[in-house]
Model the fold of this input.
Amino acid sequence: MLKKTLSCFFLALLMASFFGCQGGDQKLDEAKEETRMDWWRDARFGMFIHWGLYAIPAGEWKGTTNHAEWIRTTAEIPLEEYDQFLDDFNPVEFDAEAWVKMAKDAGMKYITITSKHHDGFGLYDSKTSDFDVMATPFKRDILKELADACEKAGIKLCFYHSIMDWHHPDYLPRRGWEKNRSTEGAEFPRYVDYMKNQLKELLTNYGEIGVLWFDGEWEDTWTHEEGVELYDYIRSLQPNIIINNRVDKGRQGMQGLTAEGNFVGDFGTPEQEIPDTGLPGIDWESCMTMNDHWGYNKNDNNWKSSKELIQNLVDIASKGGNFLLNIGPKADGTFPQESIERLAAIGDWMNVNGASIYETEASPFEHLVWGRVTQKSINGGTRLYLHVFDWPENGELRLGGIRNEAIKASLLSAASTQLTVRRDADALVIELPKISPNSIDEVISLDIKGKPEVVLPPEIMADEFQFSDQLLVKLKAKDGFDVRYTLDGSEPNSSSTLYSQEGINITKNTVLKAKTFEGSNAASATSSAEFNKVSSQKAQAVSNLKSGINYAYYEGDWDQLSNFNPLKSTKKGTVNTFDYSAHSRDEYYAFSFEGYINVPENGAYRFYISSDDGSQLFINDQLVVDNDGLHGMVEKSGLVGLEKGNHKIKVTYLQKTGGSGLEVSWKGPSFIKTQIPASVLYHQ
Ligand code: FHN
Done:
């Protein structure tokens, strides 16, 4: 990768001198862009570290235990009380070289640590703030020690820096519950200058920084214009630095990719999730916790297994992304033992299989039932790394839809163990040992001639995979190829039904399998989908219905919806649709909407709720959509079969702190997804 890029770079330089600066600059920038991102794309795997004063309470506050790095806000700790943690921050066990060694031994190529999280506390010696590590008994520049250790170990150091700052007097807005913390004299532009001065310290005094990982960009005081200006400012300090998309306003919620438009940021930032498919031409990095918290929470024992973490790494690499795996160190400066054990297990796997992750590119295949694929160009051909999660019982690994000739295959863990590869119709079939040497992921190295030539299996297109009466399914194949299919779950062959463009009408539970053919020869792997018929719930026998739905409004502090139902409502009324504007305050409230919805025809209906914070939707007292909990605007949906007529509908909604929002939509047999209109909502 690097060789290719450097030749582009010199070509661009030549062009720049020939065409003059405008075209040349543009070309030069593109070449620079390739070179700048190369190390990061090749690295694939990094360590995230969330560490600060919040490690001291370790998630616990006055009897509640579900806090972490947000504790100042989620536990509503007044500033003066939170600042007292300064006196207790003394991580005497902190050993930068030990941290870096654990990251390196785990196969991580970079470390991204919180220089400042939302609480405003700096983990370094800042000359522009007295709310930093030098104001604690520890009085050591943690980031400087980490920078030296990273430099020594050849690990890239990166900084996470929060735009949102709950400590600085000029940052706005204040937290909703901070009623007594005046905003008088606060000037947000002065806060931006302060933040830029801190960033200048971080990008001047700690050597070459690999990535600036911004966060906390979502509040209205931070604008796109400021994001663009900050991006340019950071690049002016370190031209080769990489900056994530949360510097600007284009990041789309937790799925983290950048919206269409002129937003800046070098890579997308999915959080606690992995995109469903690869994203050609898009750089992205999924960040995830090992348990359920970023900052240390001593009561959180919901640790992901090493198997899940390794398979997440492989899944992400197979889609062309990077994996940023989080550690929340304890107040004494050590990693939790559970984190140490998982890092070691990942390192054991990476020691053997790292070549199948580093410098690889996304899989040329779509969904594989047995695992994932990554790939790397080798002299004159391609090395495919077949990551086998589920070892085939018959000892044959089938790689369907590939037209290339195989050169050789072996276990990556035992390169001398040549494996037999044969052609079987559209597939290359590799003979495997009876037992997998590694039940988490055993990697097969398969060399093929040339670049991969893959015929993808037919796409199965259906509006839903559940229906109440009938369903039209369409199939789509690579141009010029036939598609043959079966409806009984058997493998399609050259005599199976030829697909025609009218589609396939499904009227009962069905397992559909489809394959692409070139004449009588199978050309692709098989795609498969299951369709289930759902019974339709009977309409309610109700009369004297009036337009609108009833609502009940509650005030209180809940983390989940189930806690407020038995309470006495603060007020009640009737609204036309799921309108929560009757709330008397911006935070700490909930609603319950109840009434009837008129369903126009028999069929399967999908209901959607998008909400910040939690929400649930019930039809005829049955939970259809569960979107509960504390979160940003997240959409969930559920499907139910309904007969024509009136059905009970209930929506509950919870707003704790920060942003709020509630949108309730539906989709039916004869209409596309749309917000539920007032015209179909009634109450008795
Ligand atoms: O609010 C932060 C949170 O504390 C954590 O830092 C994550 C990690 O990316 N980012 C924000 C939540 O989206």
Remarks:
- Residues 1-27 have pLDDT under 50 and may be disordered.
- The radius of gyration is 28 Å.
- Residues 371-449 form a domain with the Immunoglobulin-like fold (CATH 2.60.40.1180).
- The chain is about 20% helix and 30% strand.
